[in-house]
Write a structure and sequence with these properties.
Blueprint: H1 5-31, H2 50-69, H3 80-83, H4 108-128, H5 133-163, E1 188-191, E2 194-198, E3 214-218, E4 221-224, H6 230-238, H7 250-259, E5 267-270, E6 273-278, E7 281-284, H8 296-305, H9 313-322, H10 328-331, E8 357-363, E9 389-392, E10 409-411, E11 420-421, E12 425-426
Parallel strand pairs: 8-11
Antiparallel strand pairs: 1-4, 2-3, 4-12, 5-6, 6-7, 8-9, 9-10
């Protein structure tokens, strides 16, 4: 039987529309445990209200997909163009990020009406318009953008809930006993030096900052078989790690002093022992689980204390590919598992995917030959390549289809509200 080009295109459109509905539905499912009051909260300038995440992801599809590609499309509300623009200055002046929590209007019902209107028109577009490569690329980018905001939705509401002295729980589910067992003994995995391919290119999706694919010369190095645990980090605390300036970078020591840092974000010492705030509420620390919500400064200081260092992002990628298991993605602790917290490394698990974003020592810089596109979408990644550090591997709240070994996340060195952790390396 001969399959016509139009039939193939139609099948791709339906697959894309099916994925669109699934990803958009997942966002609303993640918001479902929250009240309207919860969704209004903004606890710090780096975070955004859930309501804003719901609207901004819809703004992205309206702005970059519907308005250019659907003839006679009319904006749901012209005021939304400014309110829910994040940082695309070439499209206008975005509303002040630190004040997003002040936007009580539009109300939550209007935001959901906006989402559902956008969904209806995306369905119309994908059902009726021929699927060009450019349109498919933009919709796919929008879906990956939404999955980034699914992760931010959870990190931001966790920070907001942590301020409440009653320590409310986002999820009441608890972990199975086998998930919180002892961590596998740490081993040092040797990786031979040589020229390694780094980055991504080809037909599958990747962000522009993962390209161009290129080669990097690496020296022999070793890398830890798993992430640093709560118990191991507690030894650093009890040995005076936060009081010894010799362990810290100058900026890191200044940050520790100015903010009176004595332990990781969300940790607290009580009469009964150490506790940490989680998406399941306040919980006793499980010493075998990876230490979580660590800044780059803390990760670097711990590595100095341990007599090791953090891997470069190129070492991390080379090791992750060389040491990967066939079932690595299927067994990884990612969003679909709904653990919503990092878990102790089980037998044979290397945790290169899932559990926690891993700090590297690498500055977030363009790969050789990188050029951001000249249109508004070019503002997505390139303009942030200054004063930030690269993280790799995804976390327990990263969607499985969103993560890749080549994925480059990036944050400022002092930031710790994301699900970040430590993997050590050595020469």
């Amino acid at each position: 039987m001969t399959i016509l080009a139009g039939e193939v295109n139609s099948e791709i459109q339906q697959q894309l529309l099916s994925r669109y509905r699934r990803v958009r539905g997942e966002t609303e499912q993640l918001a479902d445990p929250l009240s309207a009051e919860d969704m209004q909260l903004q606890s710090m300038p780096d975070a955004s209200p859930t309501k804003w995440h719901l609207a901004h992801t819809s703004w992205f599809f309206e702005t970059f997909v519907l308005r250019p590609h659907l003839p006679d499309y009319r904006q749901f509300d012209p005021d939304f163009h400014q309110l829910f623009n994040s940082y695309y200055n070439s499209l206008g002046t975005p509303f002040s990020r630190p004040q997003r929590g002040m936007l009580s209007r539009p109300d939550l019902d209007s935001v959901f009406a906006y989402r559902h209107s956008v969904d209806q028109f995306i369905g119309k577009l994908l059902d009726e318009q021929p699927l060009s490569q450019g349109l498919e690329t933009l919709v796919t980018l929008g879906l990956n953008h939404e999955q980034q905001h699914q992760e931010l939705l959870l990190t931001d509401i966790k920070h907001a809930f942590s301020i409440n002295p009653t320590f409310p729980s986002y999820s009441d589910s608890t972990q199975e006993e086998e998930d919180t067992g002892p961590a596998e003994e740490l081993r040092w995995l040797r990786v031979a030096g040589g020229v390694y391919g780094i980055g991504s290119e080809g037909e599958h999706f990747y962000f522009d900052n993962e390209s161009p694919a290129h080669q990097q010369l690496l020296q022999d190095f070793s890398i830890a078989s798993r992430l640093v645990t709560n118990g191991e980090y507690l030894e650093f605390i009890e040995d005076g790690g936060y009081r010894d300036p010799r362990l810290w970078l100058s900026d890191g020591w200044a940050h520790v002093q100015q903010n009176a840092c004595k332990h990781p974000l969300y940790w607290q010492k009580r009469e009964e022992g150490w506790f940490q705030f989680t998406l399941h509420g306040l919980q006793p620390i499980t010493y075998s689980e990876p230490v979580c919500h660590i800044s780059f400064y803390e990760a670097d200081a711990y590595a100095s204390w341990a007599g090791k260092r953090l891997p470069t992002e190129f070492e991390w990628e080379a090791a992750a590919f060389q040491l990967r298991r066939p079932d690595q993605l299927a067994t990884a602790n990612l969003l679909e598992k709904r653990a919503l917290r990092p878990l102790a490394a089980g037998r044979g698990q290397t945790q290169f995917l899932g559990d926690l974003w891993e700090w590297t020592s690498s500055a977030y810089l363009p790969y050789p030959g990188f050029r951001a596109s000249s249109d508004a979408v070019g503002e997505y990644n390139g303009k942030f390549m200054c004063n930030q550090k690269v993280l790799r591997g995804g976390s327990c709240i990263t969607p499985a289809e969103h993560i890749r070994m080549s994925y480059r996340n990036f944050f400022y060195p002092h930031q710790a509200w994301q699900f970040t952790g430590i993997r050590l390396a050595g020469d």
